[in-house]
């Protein structure tokens, strides 16, 4: 899987904006902003602008850390 990510990120600048990440991953800008806000992907907010470090994003995707996680309260539903 690493080879695909290497190709995806090849030639990309070190700092990316949310719209650039959305285009790169084929997702909506709002989806990327949600991921940033929820801590699904790493990013840094300066003023109103989010910045994503290319290598941190790549490592997160490689680790599968952006996969949906089961919320703790879902275990107790229906009890």
Automatic annotation (TrEMBL):
It comes from the Bacteria. SUPFAM superfamilies: Putative DNA-binding domain. Keywords: Plasmid. The keyword Ribonucleoprotein does not apply. Coiled coil: none annotated. Residues 15-63 form the Helix-turn-helix domain. It holds the Pfam family HTH_17. NCBIfam families: excise. This is Helix-turn-helix domain-containing protein.
């Amino acid at each position: 899987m690493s080879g695909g990510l290497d190709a995806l990120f090849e030639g990309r600048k070190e700092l990316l904006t949310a719209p650039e990440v959305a285009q790169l991953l084929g997702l909506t800008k709002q989806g990327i902003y949600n991921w940033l806000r929820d801590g699904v992907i790493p990013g840094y907010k300066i003023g109103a602008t989010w910045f994503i470090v290319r290598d941190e994003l790549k490592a997160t995707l490689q680790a599968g850390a952006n996969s949906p996680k089961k919320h703790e309260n879902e275990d107790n539903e229906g009890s």
